[in-house]
Write a structure and sequence with these properties.
Layout (H helix, E strand, L loop, with lengths): L3 E5 L3 H13 L3 E5 L2 H8 L6 E5 L7 H8 L7 E5 L4 H9 L4 E4 L4 H18 L3 E4 L2 E4 L4 E4 L2 E3 L3 H12 L5 E2 H9 L8 H18 L4 E4 L3 E4 L3
Parallel strand pairs: 1-2, 1-3, 3-4, 4-5
Antiparallel strand pairs: 6-7, 7-8, 8-9, 10-12, 11-12
Helix pairs in contact: 2-3, 6-7, 6-8
Amino acid sequence: MGERILLVEDEEKLARMVEMELKYEGYEVEKAFDGRTGLDRARSGEFDLILLDIMLPQLSGMEVLRRLRRESQVPVIMLTARDSVMDKVSGLDSGADDYITKPFAIEELLARIRAALRGRAGKDNPVLTAGELSMDVARHQVTVKGQEVELTKKEFDLLRHLLENKGRVLTREALLDSVWGFDFIGETNSVDVYIRFLRSKIDEAFGVKLIHTVRGVGYVIREE
């Protein structure tokens, strides 16, 4: 079975042409014609790569990308008719893996897809560590001193974000935005509650000190 690609593009003629070429190359393709449908399908986690147009009805490609990046690192190549440097910068800053401007040659698109999928292979199985704690992201598994720790999805996501920023102090607002998303801004006590959950399952349960409070600022993971 070929890799699965989601194509989010409102120009149906172009979408059909790209779909045909991708299928010819052995990829499985699904199409969405507006941003909201595209985001819903992208969140299913069934795709190896997403081709995402910037100018979309209902939700812009930038907004789709921003929301998707809160929960998924699936490779995203932005498609756009606009060749402005600012669009490229904001797309890449929002977490796009690559960028291609319409009209494009299908050979160039295929080359960029291959490169993004190769890049993904290297990122797919990171293991994050701090002291005697280890997180296998692909397996959704956390161990401390070799013993597995049961975490809810939100606890896992919060711990992962702290581990990815090991040694950096993260404010409650930054953690809220990255882990809970835009809708929760203002409810910073959610962060404190989940930090308590993590501490009881990790620091207190195993007699380690990994999750530190920086008073008046936020939280940081530091190795003992």
